[in-house]
Amino acid sequence: MVLLSAQRMDVAGIAKVAFTSCDRVRDVIHNFNADGFDSLVPRYAGGRPPKFTLPQRVQIKKIALGRPADHDLPFSTWSLPKLADYLVAKGVVDDISHEGLRLLLREEGVSFQAVKTWKTSTDPDYEAKKNRVLALYDIADGTTAPGPEDPTVIICMDEFGPLNLQPHPGKQWAPKASKASNGRPGDQPLRRRRRATYTRPHGVRHLLAGYDLSTDKVYGHVKVRKTRTEFLAFCRYLRSLHPPEVRIAIVLDNFSPHRSTKTDTRVAEWAAANNVELAYVPFYGSWLNRIEAQFTALRYFALDGTDHPGHKQQASMIRRYLIWRNTHHTDPVLRKVVRRAETIKRARVA
């Protein structure tokens, strides 16, 4: 292009000979007039991003999941610029852009998340209790054969509540607001509103529930109180679901009515007399109780978006849900809610 221009050929003719546009010819000539032969040196830019080896990716992920304080840095968390500078300073990579680092971390399954709280168990018998509960679950799942003294039926038991008479948050189907209505009442039906409550003088109720792993059914009784007397009455009901010669185990937490004391030994005496093993989860270990995920489904299906006028109506809704749940325990939406709740609870101790 430069030689043809020096021979007085016009721009259109040069573009035709070079199979390019007139604008391209003008840019080359103007650049040559400004910079001389340096303008003819190719300047390569862009191209595919550099590939990082598997050891480099593993090291980057390991550092990103750690804390800056572990590397003697005065930061509480990594930012993309700080992490990129540290990787280059330590020789993990020669160079990496902030966007390239973000994409690499995303490909490795690492994202920037909020830190959540977790209360560790202070139970001195944590391992023994946890292992016993997991062993019982293996028996219930059929992965382990029960021993001579092991139970063959496993039931998870806990209390749900307190159940207040209050409007519960939830979601509903409602018409979309249109610009024509301008939010004026009467133009279209309004979605239901949650009643505002300031005093709740009607007291509370408690749901005593048991989840039978052998039949995949949930049973429950709504009570005014949840003392040792109500607990034993519900345990007798759970015991009546199976023949007396069948040994059962009840997985439950360390709530005081669940245990015997020096002044009240009724719980231990009843268990010994009725062929029942009481398996207590560790302190702050309620995630081990499989009934917790069932409570999430109960809240989702039967309580979200409700505002019952009385405890009788609320208890009726819960009982009707339990009947539906026991006859539709393979419902895909129900299983999805339960699996998600179980995953969240397991993640809290990962």
Largest sheet: 5 strands, mixed
What CATH architecture of the largest domain do you see? 2-Layer Sandwich
Number of strands: 5
Query: In CATH, what is the class of the largest domain?
Result: Alpha Beta
**Number of helices, counting only DSSP H or I runs of 4 residues or more:** 12
The outline comes out as elongated
Strand content: 5-15%
- The largest sheet has its strands arranged as 3-2-1-4-5
Assign the structural class, choosing from mainly alpha, mainly beta, alpha/beta, alpha+beta, or little secondary structure.
alpha/beta
* End-to-end separation: 66 Å
- Uncertain segments: none
CATH topology of the largest domain: Nucleotidyltransferase, domain 5
H-E order: HHHHHHHEEEHEHEHHH
* Radius of gyration, whole Å: 34 Å
Q: Fraction of residues in helices?
A: 40-55%
CATH superfamily of the largest domain: Ribonuclease H-like superfamily/Ribonuclease H
Any idea how many domains?
A: 3
Oligomeric description of these chains: single chain
Mean pLDDT across all amino acids:
87
